[in-house]
Amino acid sequence: MKKIYCLLLAVAAVQFTHAQKIKIPQDTSVTTKHSVSVNGNSFNYTAETGFMPLWGEQNEPVASIYYTYYTRDGIKDRKNRPLVISFNGGPGSASVWMHIAYTGPRVLKIDDEGFPVQPYGIRENTSSILDVADIVYVNPVNTGYSRPIPDEEGKVDREKFFGVNADVTYLAEWLNTFVTRKNRWLSPKYLIGESYGTTRVSGLALELQNSQWMYLNGVILVSPTELGIERGGPVEIANRLPYFAAAAWYHQLLPSELQNKDLEELLPEVEDFTINKVLPALVKGGFLDVSEREEIAGKMAHYSGIDQQTFLDNNLEVPFRLFWKELLRNEGYTVGRLDSRYRGLDARSSGNSPDYNAELTSWLHSFTPAINYYLREELNFKTNLKYMMFGPVHPWDRSGDHTGENLRQAMAQNPNLDVMIQSGYFDGATTYFNAKYSMWQLDPSGKMKDRLSFKAYRSGHMMYLRKDDLQQANDDLREFILKSLPKENEPAKY
């Protein structure tokens, strides 16, 4: 572990040294004009991309944050025009994924199921939410082109940027600058985050209210993380089964009576078994009756495509990595972590874990050339900095993660704040059932459950890569935004 830590620090040092050799722009942008047709309606829009400084305690620039900002043309008064603020996750991931594959006016060229095709490129996004909202894509420090600015001694204070709470604090400060400069204080505002980005935007919801006095209308959690919500032990183990069932159903490995059911008919059955049978059995641990243990293991095998003995050998707890290795072992494949529709090839069929994440290598195959081409050739942004799909942000301080509670408190303080969760059924990293669990636990009182909504799709972590889900997920976003806008002069009160 110590060797890995030293290696990470060495990589970070190289990145910082390289950044110092290349002059880091602090406050510059490029503006271009474009058009797009969304749901059959064509309109013009403006793209602005560049750097905006993050100010330190002495009003000095401490980082240069790279962003891309899209505004629909022809809007005379933007006080009623929603602004969507978009983050991806990692931590350490650039804001590229949702930018050029989900909500933006251009999407990368892939096949209808999300697999890479050549020649690489981008195309018009006829599903973009730019028709109803302006969008800014923000790259946190050391992602995309964003970089920290070393002090006079050439040092960077990593604690300012690389941790759950540090990340939220500095990004809230930067958003204050952005909203002020772009004159968007009167606009309805929405945060959207994907994966670790959901941790980020959940924390930002409260930080923006309490430290920047900036109130939101909505938060969208795409493939959410655990948000600091407790689920260890039997709950964490039991919650895996509905995802196991979904992945097995996709690969047609379930018994015929289950396989012949539609996925959304099957999963409620599995969820019921998970909550009412698996969870109580796991609570009993080693004192579970032998016959009951075998019965539960048999039923878990029935729903998962994994044999009964594997569950018994693992005390009813089949780890995710073993599942990804085991599900298609007899066919010679592994399945992807973030999207189990993807198949991988290992050096050996034996073992308890895949050699690599099949879905991530596929995504990088198409995203990396697309974003580098798009920013330079279509948005006319030229720089010698490397666009970091994943940047050196580790070690990441995960202590004090109360972001789920922060989001609940932000909702309680702000009657206008609604939350929507979007998940893919075949996501094995941030599973759809764990996302449901988070929603159920987010507001234990149940007093705000009418302001929480859940949408699921027949794909994985980045559900928008599948053509049908790209359209549906954007339609769901569009509906959420329009429904959560308060009527004119309607007071925010209980």
UniProtKB/TrEMBL annotation:
Keyword Nucleotidyltransferase: no
GO MF assignments: serine-type carboxypeptidase activity
Domain of life: Bacteria
Entries under InterPro entries matching the protein: AB_hydrolase_fold, Peptidase_S10
Pfam families on file: Peptidase_S10
Coiled coil: none
Keyword field: Carboxypeptidase, Hydrolase, Protease
Example GO biological process: proteolysis
Signal peptide from the UniProt entry: none
Protein name: Carboxypeptidase-related protein
Taxonomic source organism: Christiangramia flava JLT2011
